[in-house]
Amino acid sequence: MGKEAHRFLEVERNAIREIGFHEERALAAESLFSLSDEFMGSRGYFEEGYSGKSLRGSYFNGVYDYAREKTPNAYKGIVERTHYMVNALDYWKIRLLADGERLDLGKVRFSEFERSLSFEDGLYSRSFLWTLGNGKKLRVLIERILDYENPHEARQRVWLESDSPVEIDLSFLLDFDLPQWGKESQFHMWRKDDSFPAIRAKTLFTDILLGGAMEAVPSLPLKGERVEGRKEVGTRYRFLLEGKASFERRACSLHSRESGKRDLLARALAELSERKDRTFEDVREGNRLFLNRLEERGRITIEGDEEDLQGIRYCMFMLNTTYSGYSDRDNVPAKGLTGEAYSGHTFWDSETFCLPYFLFTNPKAAESLILFRIHTLKEAKERARMLDCRGACYPVATLNGEEGCALWQHASLQFQASTGTAYALYHHYNVTKDDSLLLKGGMEVLLEISRFLLDRGQWDQERKRFGYYAVMGPDEFKMMVNHDSYTNLMAKFTFELTLDFFEMMRKRHRSLQRLLKREGFGEKFLEEIREAADAMLIPFDPETLLYEQNEGFFSLPHIDVGSIPESDFPLYSHWSYDRIYRGDMIKQPAVLMHLFLFLSTTRKEVLERNYDYYEPRCIHESSLSPSVHSILASALGREEEALRLYGFASRLDLDDWNGNTGEGLHLTSIAAAWNTIVYGFGGFRSDGRELSLAPYLPRKWKSYSFRLLVDGKRLETRVEERKVVLLALDGPVDIVLYGEKRHVEGTYEAPIPDRA
Description:
About 30% of the residues lie in helices and about 25% in strands. A hairpin with a 5-residue loop joins strand 10 (about 110-120) and strand 11 (about 125-130).
């Protein structure tokens, strides 16, 4: 594969830790030490400022803006003005001078550097010994924590200690001067409160108000003075440090998209006042309880390999704190709230990679993910019109429901978000047997997606085969291809699902039938999608059992992906754009992705033939790729390969395998790492008629376990050397184990069968 791990963190079960400052990994560390509570998030940048490489990033879910300028285009359907999550309010900022010397770890002398992030309570801690120019030494400890129970709030503690008297000048600031894309702030119309450190600003084009208020409380009897600039406000303390001193800052942030535009600063100040007695340690304890509640529903353990355990625990911590269904108007940004790459947009990854995790650990969050697509149906219909089609085309990349991708070859040619939304509606109903989401608009979404797919697809000249021309499937190294197998297969699935669900829903809900008929979804429409589904061109050879990824793929020039040097990664940065299209190299699984989504009904010999053909051609340039391959390798009994790819998936960011962790974490890949354990080693299947398990134990591990919510009840699966133990923790659970139906009450044990 030509890729290498760049490891610089300690291996621990319940934390990540950096001992000694690794300047060359500074940007990656900022991403890895990010904090989020779904409402807001920030990178692990240095509060005091840093003259080295840094992205001082602070983000709020749903706070976005449009690009300052349009990019006029003569061609219809191409986005002229993208939108993106804005770099917003810095509520961690401090300014520290000691004996007149300003703290900047890019310029001062320091030692004993250490920082850590705890998975148990979300505490981020950084400490070092600062040697001043005059020889005095000042020990500095800075701690941060977000309040998961009160997601508008952030807490910060600064500890200072010196064995010599030192003149300290310390300011705590709220700062709106965070550059977007390294340029200028996307906010204007700043307003400050006259009597308290509080500030408000407005986005340039979306008119979203964002405001924050703070209070800093010293351990010493000190009086602070107000400081402010055009875009910042805060409190300054000047004193002689003799021994120790500490400060605790409380900050509250609100935005008008959630709270309305009236009295934003007054509300922020009121929230600070309401929780004035809630201490830093109270927040830590509350966070422990919050995270423990989530872990109780989805706990994973691994005995026998600390690196593998740390990898999945980091993934679950980041996933749980990034998204928990707080708002059904937001989705999972591909980078979470950890960087500006991907503009804060969500992709089809949410429905295919993130949804399974939430379906079986946090059903409310799963429902919120799907409701985001239901709420943005209007925008999806507008996007279809831009592409000269009827129906609904969900955007390739979006934050607000509109298409945010200005690259036409992606935005106009990829339909994975639309078929992924259809699959999410299927997956949710298949697991829950609850049709409430279909009643809340899901059925209309499904019909409108089918209407788009019917309009966008075409019949051949003899009107015998239906399919898709000039498209781009999941493998983004193939552009303007005909009959991409994933696209055609998922369109066929969507048509057939629409027919099945329509029949089911019109029998159950007569009023829904009348409503949908008014929208033009009558018998004629149903007959048209039935005809298209039956005639769908599927490029499958029954003799070789191979799916051709797209028409002409088998005749493409071959590229030996193993011969590509590590220095060429990421390829988008080192190869000319057209070069990546000129061969059979695959960015991420396409044929194999479809087989993954329908593993319950995929014949093993079909899976094996296609895996052996496509896996050697995959460069894993997508962070989602390793997990799919690991799961399929497990299904084929290739344990060593599955475990190697699991390590790649679960530690993709921790070890910076793709060399781009500094741009932000890969949140959807983090969800995919969970899939790798549960669907891979656990042999879990949720796409068929019944939920089933077929776990095995990788030879490197002594044991592992995972929990799932099945019908709202916790089922724990423990896999040991020779046996699997199922524990129904909240009452009886029905599950298929190794092909046999089991009614589990209490504890059930079974031997692990021979996988040969």
